Amino acid sequence: MRKRRTRYSERNTRYHSRKGQTFQQIILSIVALFLVVIFLVVLCTDPMGNNGSVPPESVMAAKDADETADSNVSQSDESVSDTASADGLDQTSDGQTDSTASSSDWRLLLVNSTHPIADDYSIDLTELRNGQSVDSRILTDLQEMFDAARSEDIYPIVSDAYRTREEQQALMDDTIQNYEDEGYSAEEATSKAEQVIAKPGTSEHETGLAIDIAGDEDYGQDTDSVLAWMNDNAYKYGFVLRYPSGKESVTGAAAEDDHYRYVGKEAAKVMHDKGICLEEYLSQNN
Question: Does the keyword Transmembrane belong to this entry (predicted)?
Fold first, then answer.
């Protein structure tokens, strides 16, 4: 009788032991499964494993592309150079990085006799088909403007554009010499030259944002018709007449009817609608 009880007790003990082990295995399996689920959730939420602090590579690439899009588009489009070759550069004040400028927007940077261009100013230029060069950032709007003009049988060209400081100095020297040849003293010749030619370092020609406009002789286009079209339409494409008649005391420069400056479409529309020049626009908006 004792032996039977002992065997029954041993079987019962083994049964409960196995039952306890099975229960522990179930608990461990549940815990392991829970941890796996948490890991998967974290991994899917932040595949880079750093709480998303670094953007995906595709996002960074897109940002870089945006920053260089203007230059790449303008330089790769052959028709742009063909069209812009009719455009010209005068003395405009957009896009300089002068420490005295009243705006950080490159399109609105003021360059004149009291706001010289910084010595370390740099520019990405695109050469037009006729050898003139402009700031690459304005080329898309310049092309759009010329296409619009040509669609109305108006054929403009850029007759002058970017100048180096050395070229601006040479222009000043030649102008002074011309006045001296006419009989003016050196002092008088210099004074008269500075009334029509910007001193080196204060010319918008050195920014690549200014163009002088003329009629394309290859199409028998007269300049007066081109300038009339520009006066009515240039602002739609971000360009304004930089030195309008009646604003000499504000701009500090003689009026020029062929000198256009890129300021961007928004600012150009305001300046056109209000009949104000760049200096006045900056004064009202800063």
Answer: yes
